[in-house]
Amino acid sequence: MAQHISDATVLANGVNMPWLGLGVYKAKEGEEVEQAVKAALRIGYRSIDTAAFYGNEEGVGRAVRESGIPREEIFITTKVWNSDQGYERTLAAFEASLQRLGMEYVDLYLIHWPVKGKYKETWRALETLYKEGKARAIGVSNFQVHHLEDLMADAEIKPMVNQVEFHPFLTQEKLRDFCRREGIQLEAWSPLMRGEVVNVPEIVELAEKYGKTPAQIVLRWDLQHGVVTIPKSVREARIRENADLFDFELSAEDMAKLDALNRNHRFGPDPDNFNF
Question: Mind telling me which InterPro entries this protein's record contains (predicted)?
C-alpha cells in the first residue's frame, strides 16, 4: 500500500509506475501547463499524464526539462488520439508526440479510446514501439472487459495499464476484477468526479471524520483499491493538497461505505456509445 508520494506499483513487465500522478487534461498549453507540472515536480510528484488530444505535450516537455530533475526519474504518459488510429498512422502520431515532448521515449503510451475496427491495428503499432524501446510500457484507456478480451485474443503483448473513469459513483467492479486477474494495472481518470465529490454527503462526512478534504478521501480510496490515480489541477495549492494522502488510512468499513455509493454513473463518455 502506498505510504509515500514516490511509491510505485510494478507493472507486469517490471516497470515502476507511481501510484499518484498529475493529470493535465484541459491545462492550457504554455504558462498554465508548465507551471502546473513544475509545481507538481517540486512537491514530489514523479508522474505526469498527458495526451496528443490535450494539446499541451510541448509545455509538459518544457517543464520537465526546466525542472532540473533527471528525465529517467519522471514517468511520462501520453496517448494516441482516435483520428490517428491504425498501424502506420499511430507510428507517425507517436513520433509527433515525442517531438512535441522533446523526449527520446515515453514511459507509457496508451490507446485513448477503443475505436471500433481500428484498435487492434493500433495495438500492433504500440507493440512495435514497445519492442523498439520507445515506450517503456504500453496500455489502453477506456477499454471495457469485452474490448480487452477482443484485443488480447490477437495481441502478442498484453496491455500493462487500463486507464478508465473510476470514482465512487462508478466503481467498475467487473472491470477491476478482470484487470486484476489479467495483471493489468487499473488507473483512474476523473477520480474527483469533476469536482462533485464535495457535494456527496457520505464523502463529506468521512472527510470530517478523518480531518481531510473530500478529494483526499476519494484519492486515498483509489490507492487502497490498488488503483493508480491522476487528479488534475493547475493550482499549486490544490496539487499539493491532492498529494497529502499518505498519513492516513481508511478503515475497511469506510472503504465499503464509499463502494456502496456506486450508481454506474459516468461524468465522461461511455466507451460503448462514443461517437469516434
Answer: AKR (IPR020471), AKR5G (IPR044500), Aldo/ket_reductase_CS (IPR018170), NAD(P)_OxRdtase_dom_sf (IPR036812), NADP_OxRdtase_dom (IPR023210)
